[in-house]
């Protein structure tokens, strides 16, 4: 997997069950691209935009993201923020 398609694994403190009854204990989040942000901005409000983006980056449904415990949702937010810094910020 190239660096541009690298994924981050997020371990859930409170696993969720998806619509098919499968337990999800961890999420794999890929790096966002500009096109992901454009699609996100088509949503009505900021809360919907963020949920849409996270669902897109983790290949989950909106309903799955809605079921995340608040501490796990914050882990997803933190992981996303870390991805936005890029390699150049890590070297400073």
Task: Give the arrangement of secondary structure elements.
Layout: E1 7-17, E2 23-30, H1 34-40, H2 46-58, H3 62-66, H4 70-83, H5 86-90
Antiparallel strand pairs: 1-2
Short description:
This is Phage tail assembly protein. With 92 residues, the protein is an alpha+beta fold.
Report what the structure shows.
This protein is α+β, with helices and mostly antiparallel strands and 92 residues long. The protein has one domain (3-77). It has helices at residues 34-40, 46-58, 62-66, 70-83, 86-90; strands at residues 7-17, 23-30. Strands 1-2 form a two-stranded antiparallel ribbon. Helix 1 (34-40) packs across helix 2. The radius of gyration is 13 Å and the shape is globular. Pfam families: Phage_TAC_7. InterPro entries: Phage_tail_E/E. This is Phage tail assembly protein.
Strand content bin: 15-25%
Topology as a string of helices (H) and strands (E): EEHHHHH
Q: Please count the beta strands (DSSP E, at least 2 residues each).
A: 2
Dominant shape = globular
The main sheet orders its strands as 1-2
Q: Stretches where pLDDT falls below 50 for ≥5 residues?
A: none
- Give the helix/strand class: alpha+beta
Oligomer: single chain
Integer count of domains: 1
Gap between N and C termini, in Å? 25 Å
In DSSP terms (H or I, runs of 4 or more residues), the helix count works out at: 5
Report the helical percentage. Answer: 40-55%
Compute the average pLDDT: 89
Largest β sheet strand count, sense and barrel closure: 2 strands, antiparallel
Q: If you compute it from the alpha carbons, what radius of gyration comes out, rounded to the nearest whole angstrom?
A: 13 Å
